[in-house]
Design goal:
29% of the residues are buried. A hairpin with a 2-residue loop joins strand 1 and strand 2. This protein is an alpha+beta fold and 477 residues long. The two termini are 56 Å apart. Strands 1-2-3-4 form a 4-stranded antiparallel β-sheet, with no helix packed on it. It has helices at residues 3-22, 24-27, 70-82, 84-105, 153-219, 225-259, 286-292, 294-315, 360-426, 432-467; strands at 110-126, 129-148, 320-331, 343-352. It is elongated. It has a single domain (40-108, 150-319, 359-467), classed as Outer membrane efflux proteins (OEP) (Up-down Bundle), CATH 1.20.1600.10.
Length: 477
């Protein structure tokens, strides 16, 4: 851009600023200076969830009691009170609230008091003599400055900070939900690992019994050395699986203790079995999600905050009115400082109209407009993600239940197949490979069923979290 083009650009911007100022009174009620009163538009919401058509579900309500585990509820309460991340977010809420007080303080005049005292000595030489003179001086004054919020610029900043505070509160609630959900999942992982350890122990006993039969048959010349080696290898593999499950259990328990704010000592006592739940899926409609889910609420509040700051950036081009003044006294004696005869004061009003700030005001306005667009896009993305999470969890509920039903039948069949293989092997009707395969399948079936029950519990937690329902009766609204 050459100098001439740059000069024309500056001239156009100056004329634009003058035009805005001249129409300020007329535009104060138009949309240019009006705040948004609704959240940004998102995808069209259906009347009901596509993955859940049943109307007999319970309404969204505190969900932790659905797992019927008092120790789990107690641990969640402990985590909500002691988790360091939550304490950090709670401090963030306090900071946001204090920021609102700072914005509110701009409405009031700023008054400063000042007291000063000094003493000096002057020497005057006259002829052959020197005269000394000492002067004392004390003073007291009050200075104040007050910006009159003629265009509600300060009000826009105050409302923006209040929206920021509401967003911080929603972030805290979202973190509480997330912590409770992660703690429940860690609880299920730890309990399931304990069940896997006991399943491995039971399997080891079964494999050891089979190994004893094979060894005895080998001693009698009924079986070959290969049978002994394969049976022993199968037993050792089961012991290795047990050690792996013990390691997993230790990791999950320590993770659980850390989430609860405890020292991870792996000393937490857990129940022996995963909880059973037969409660129906929560029943709601997609539109309710926008008013209930905390991350959506926080995104909407941030959009409103950015919109208020855009209004302030637009109004920064309008005149500013300030009243300033000071008053006080200055005397040689401290006793006279409150004497009305020594009182001096002045007061002044200033009206300042921005004319040229090197494009600063235009850049600030353009930046504020971009932030509004960014906040609107973020809100739309969060809503879309929330809808996806709910639909995915609801759809998964059906498929996981079908898988669990099939696995339960598979466990029955594999156990019976193992029993038949053991009888056939003892009677010499089948080989060792068939027996070992039947044993492995029986173990895998039970382990897969246990893992599927854990997955269903995880998915139900994901659904509760996606719907944004409260964890406990005492959860934040």
């Amino acid at each position: 851009m050459n100098v001439f083009s740059f000069s024309r650009l500056l001239l156009r911007r100056r004329l634009s600023a003058v035009f805005i100022v001249s129409l300020a009174l007329g535009l104060s009620g138009c949309s240019y200076f009006s705040a948004q009163d609704q959240a940004p538009e998102t995808v069209a919401l259906p009347a009901q969830w596509s993955s859940h058509t049943a109307a007999d579900g319970d309404p969204v309500k505190p969900w932790l009691s659905a797992f019927q585990s008092a120790p789990l509820e107690s641990l969640v309460n402990e985590a909500l009170a002691a988790n360091p991340m939550l304490r950090s977010l709670t401090a963030g809420v306090d900071i946001a609230e204090d920021q609102s007080w700072l914005a509110m303080s701009a409405f009031w005049p700023k008054i400063n008091a000042k007291f000063n005292a000094n003493r000096n000595q002057r020497n005057n030489a006259s002829g052959f003599s020197v005269a000394s003179r000492r002067n004392n001086n004390v003073g007291f004054s009050l200075d104040f400055i007050w910006e009159i919020d003629l265009w509600y610029k300060l009000g826009n900043e105050l409302e923006a900070s209040e929206h920021d505070s509401a967003a911080a509160q929603s972030d805290l609630y979202a973190a509480q939900l997330s912590l409770a959900a992660n703690l429940c999942k860690a609880w299920f992982e730890a309990v399931a690992a304990g069940q896997q350890v006991r399943l491995a122990e039971k399997t080891i006993v079964s494999f050891e019994n089979a190994l004893t039969i094979v060894e005895q048959g080998y001693d009698l010349g009924l079986y070959e050395a290969l049978d002994v080696r394969l049976a022993r290898s199968n037993m050792l593999s089961a012991r290795g699986r047990k050690e792996n499950f013990l390691k997993m259990q230790d990791q999950h328990v320590r993770n659980l203790e850390a989430l609860a704010g405890r020292y991870p000592s792996a000393q937490l006592i857990l129940p022996e079995h995963l909880p059973d739940f037969a409660s129906a899926m929560p029943n709601s409609v997609p539109a309710e999600l926008l008013q209930r889910r905390p991350d959506i609420i926080a995104a909407a509040q941030r959009f409103f905050a950015s919109d208020q700051r855009l209004l302030k950036a637009r109004k920064n081009m309008l005149p500013t009115i300030q009243i300033s003044g000071n008053g006080g006294a200055s005397t040689r004696k401290l006793d006279d400082i409150f004497n009305p005869e020594f009182l001096i004061w002045n007061i002044a009003g200033n009206l300042t109209q921005p004319l040229f700030h090197g494009s600063q005001l235009f850049a600030e306005r353009s930046q504020a407009e971009a932030r509004v667009k960014q906040a609107a896009a973020d809100y739309a993305q969060i809503v879309l993600t929330a809808l996806q999470e709910v639909e995915t969890a609801m759809a998964a509920e059906h498929w996981l239940l079908q898988q669990q039903t099939l696995l339960q039948a598979q466990v029955v069949e594999s156990k019976e197949a193992q029993r038949l293989a053991e009888d056939s092997y003892i009677n010499g009707l089948t080989d060792i490979i068939t027996l070992l395969e039947a044993q492995r399948r029986a173990f895998d079936a039970e382990n897969n069923l246990l893992d599927m029950r854990k997955q269903r519990l995880h998915n139900r937690v994901n659904l509760y979290l996606a719907l944004g329902g409260p964890v406990l009766e005492t959860s934040l609204p």
